[in-house]
């Protein structure tokens, strides 16, 4: 009956835990090099999310948690990443705790200023309100992290699907570099 | 600069992490057998809390986390426990994740109905709104758990300091038993 979180693996277990997966196919439009993405095996899993939400999304009354397992890899010169989102309730925050791997938390304000924080086992990250956030795996192993957020938060994936982030995390000379997009989105 | 959470030990580290301690002296009035508590070494540490609060208590905009290290031991036939609290913002929830040890999460509704959930390494616990909560260590080793809550929540320790819980977790025949208080508090 009870929900458990394995502290070493990030595995969330229990009958109330839900699972979702994002394949390379589901990430169409998220990478700079769409041709490279289209040539990959579309069924390859980019990431998997296990979530425990004691209250339904958008309804007050719980702190939710979810573990994301993000595969290593690149699409062109961009690291595998999560789609990223603003919060539907824009004044709601989030907390990320890295379990394993090496990654980057990419954050963007509403005026599209974009910055990043390095993620490594044990790192804890405050995501302020009104800040879009996505995660990239810059290592060779799966990146595993746990997110905590209030249940009323809700997710706005649409803004990022349409406009992207203000900068992309690209592999330049073998190392990650956050590079501002060439074509700023008009206001 | 960054805050880290050791997944195995629960240790929270970083310049923004605060520490507080509760000694046996500070738990005066919380146990049934006050004479037994008074005879103990008053400087003995019952528990220690390391907290990361990106926003000040009572102010919106962050998910906070804190690790509690609760020593094993008894006062009379009652296990060492945290003082317990309602939330000042009564509609705010909390989430507990056990790191190590063996404990009991004791919960109480506003009408003083009291129940418990077993805590063991990895167990995850939803604390609903309007529900007082405290933790008892029923094992031989330190009980370590991490709490997550929205920064606007605030803490009401006073109600529990005055009225206690509706039941006490006592050691009966070597095992924990949740025993309803003999003298219910008048409404």
What is the structure about, briefly put?
2 copies of one chain form a homodimer. Chain A has 187 residues and is mostly beta strands. Chain A is 6% helix and 48% strand.
Essential attributes:
homodimer; 187 residues; mainly beta; 17 strands; globular
Write the layout of secondary structure elements.
The structure is a homodimer of 187-residue chains.
Chain A lengths: L2 E3 L6 E2 L3 E7 L10 H6 L5 E8 L10 E8 L3 E2 L2 E2 L6 E2 L6 E7 L1 E8 L4 E7 L2 E5 L3 E7 L5 E8 L4 E2 L1 H6 L3 E6 L2 E6 L7
Antiparallel strand pairs in A: 1-2, 3-4, 4-5, 5-14, 6-7, 8-15, 9-12, 9-14, 10-11, 10-13, 16-17
Structure description:
- 2 copies of one chain form a homodimer.
- Chain A is 6% helix and 48% strand.
- The first copy, chain A, is built from 2 helices and 17 strands.
- In chain A, strands 3-4-5-14-9-12 form a 6-stranded antiparallel β-sheet, with no helix packed on it. Chain A has a 3-stranded antiparallel β-sheet with strand order 11-10-13, with no helix packed on it. In chain A, strands 1-2 form a two-stranded antiparallel sheet.
- Chain A is globular.
- The interface between A and B is large, with 37 and 37 residues.
- In quaternary terms, these chains amount to homodimer
Strand order of the largest sheet of chain A: 3-4-5-14-9-12
Q: Rough shape of chain A?
A: globular
| Structure annotation, total helices of chain A | 2
- What would the average pLDDT of chain A be, to the nearest integer? 95
- Rounded to the nearest angstrom, the radius of gyration of chain A is 16 Å
Let me know the largest β-sheet of chain A: 6 strands, antiparallel
Query: Could you name the ranges of chain A where pLDDT drops below 50 across 5 or more consecutive residues?
Result: none
Beta strand count of chain A = 17
N-to-C order of helices and strands of chain A: EEEHEEEEEEEEEEEEHEE
**Which class of secondary structure composition applies to the elements of chain A?**
mainly beta
Query: Residue share in helices of chain A?
Result: under 10%
**How far apart, in Å, are the first and last alpha carbons of chain A?**
49 Å
Strand content of chain A: over 45%
Greatest interface by residues involved: A-B, 37 and 37 residues
């Amino acid at each position: 009956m009870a929900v458990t979180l394995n502290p070493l693996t990030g595995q969330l277990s229990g009958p109330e835990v839900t699972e979702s997966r994002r394949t390379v196919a589901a990430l169409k439009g998220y990478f700079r090099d769409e041709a490279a993405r289209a040539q990959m095996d579309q069924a390859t899993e980019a990431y998997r999310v296990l979530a425990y939400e004691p209250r339904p999304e958008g309804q007050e009354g719980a702190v939710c948690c979810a573990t994301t397992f993000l595969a290593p890899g690149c699409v062109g010169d961009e690291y595998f990443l999560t789609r990223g989102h603003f919060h539907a309730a824009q004044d709601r925050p989030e907390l990320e705790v890295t379990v394993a791997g090496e990654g980057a938390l990419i954050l963007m304000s509403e005026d599209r200023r974009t910055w990043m924080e390095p993620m490594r086992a044990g790192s804890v990250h405050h995501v302020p309100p009104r800040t879009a956030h996505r995660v990239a795996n810059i290592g060779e192993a799966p990146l595993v992290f746990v997110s905590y957020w209030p249940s009323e938060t809700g997710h706005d994936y649409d803004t990022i699907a349409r406009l992207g982030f203000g900068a992309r995390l690209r592999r330049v000379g073998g190392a990650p570099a956050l590079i501002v997009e060439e074509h700023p989105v008009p206001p």
